[in-house]
Amino acid sequence: MLAQSDKPTESIWSCPVHAVVAEQNPGKCPICRRDLVLVTATVSWVCPNRPEVERPGPGRCADGSQAEKRYVQSTHANHNPRHGGLFFMAPDLWHHLEGTYESDQIFRVFLYDDYTKPLSPDLAKQVTGRLVTDERFDTATKTTKEIAAFPLKLSADGDYLEARPGRLKFPAEVTAKLKFKNGDQEYRFDFTFAEFSVDKAAIPADAASSLFEVPDDLNEVLKLLAERVTLIGDLVQKGAFSEVWVPAFQAKDLALSLDARTRTLPLAQRDLATAGIERLVRASWMLDASGDTGNRNDVEQAYGALASAAREVEATFGPAAGSGGAR
Q: Which of 49, 98, 297, 309 could form a disulfide with 279 if both were Cys (CB 3.0 to 4.6 A apart)?
């Protein structure tokens, strides 16, 4: 049996409900006619007469037949929104959710499991929470007081939780506070909507990162690093937390390319450069994780660490080319 980490992965179109469906192009589920969604699946090959034995690649079986390709969807492999909203992973690393605010002025929370499948009705009924549209921090008591909050209730068809805050001014900053079962810890998810959500087919998130290449020129690397830090800052400010992972990982790749150049620095600067690069790489991973969970405080702390590390790295290698520096 191949280990999960040893298997190659591919993007396929599958049904949100019937995971057995694996298509190469978008369309409708042949079982329930739902729209197919893009997911990531591990790939293996099996022989028809011995489906329990996985092979690492294509080829012929002992009986001369051709091995068949098999797809198995992975956990945490698909964080693409299904309804045009903002997608987060819960800190418990199992639940996932997507929040939308559509033109009917209803805030909806779609709930998913670790395979990004809709939460079962029994589990969905256990989820409780509220939508907070206004809160104030009391410096005297060091506590946050909710000024305006609306209960999140399960919709009649059980497909999502909904709250009715009415018309919100854009950019609309709201917070969903959820417990996934009675007695469970309450989790906070911060959403910022620049406009009404539109339910449309999700665009694969990895498309943006696949076009990125690290240049050889040092000044160009420093310029791109400064641009990525600025871009991440803009995304954090807008509340687009689920989008920060792409420029964060690009910043990580740029920092790692600088690591090979530390030997060209004077001895006094090498340790500073290495330490700064290590902090930047750690901050990139922190941004990815906190962006998934949607907690603004955690995202802002991770971004602050990344921006600070980027400034240190730029200082050790000299002034960045161009005018865009880490903020």
A: 309
